[in-house]
């Protein structure tokens, strides 16, 4: 489903947890606590939406990063 909607595979989103620089912020409009991790994946800015469920990290969506997310990342990491 994510590939059809965003052209990106959630499996590739797992790479965002490999220790590379990432800008992370919390979403507040959902009942569960969700986070967005913004960073580079194969040279392109992406945003990974995820949550923690017990000991499991659940990937929700992987999409191209929005302009504001890119600016926030660059403000922290250059």
Question: Could you characterize the architecture of this molecule?
Answer:
It is a single chain. A 4-stranded antiparallel β-sheet has the order 1-2-3-4. The protein has helices spanning about 1-5, 10-15, 65-75; strands at about 25, 35-40, 45-55, 55-65. The protein is α+β, with helices and mostly antiparallel strands and about 80 residues long. The longest helix is centred in the last third of the chain and has 11 residues, at about 65-75.
Write the layout of secondary structure elements.
Elements: H1 2-6, H2 10-13, E1 23-27, E2 34-41, E3 44-53, E4 56-64, H3 67-77
Antiparallel strand pairs: 1-2, 2-3, 3-4
Helix content: 25-40%
Which spans of ≥5 residues are poorly predicted at pLDDT below 50? none
Report strand order across the widest sheet: 1-2-3-4
Given helix and strand content, the structural type is alpha+beta
Portion in strands: 35-45%
DSSP strand tally: 4
Number of helices: 3
Mean pLDDT: 90
Question: How many structural domains are formed by the residues?
Answer: 1
Question: What shape does the CA trace take?
Answer: globular
Distance between the termini: 33 Å
The succession of helices and strands, N to C, reads: HHEEEEH
The largest sheet is: 4 strands, antiparallel
Rg, alpha carbons: 12 Å
Question: What does this entry show, briefly?
Answer:
Helix content is 26%, strand content 41%.
What are the defining features of this structure?
78 residues, 4 strands, 26% helix, 41% strand
């Amino acid at each position: 489903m994510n590939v059809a909607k965003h052209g990106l595979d959630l499996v590739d989103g797992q790479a965002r947890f490999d220790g590379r620089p990432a800008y992370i912020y919390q979403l507040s409009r959902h009942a569960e606590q969700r986070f967005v991790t913004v960073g580079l994946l194969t040279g392109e800015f992406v945003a990974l939406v995820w949550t923690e469920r017990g000991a499991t990290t659940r990937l929700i969506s992987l999409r191209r990063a929005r302009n504001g997310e890119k600016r926030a990342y660059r403000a922290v990491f250059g």
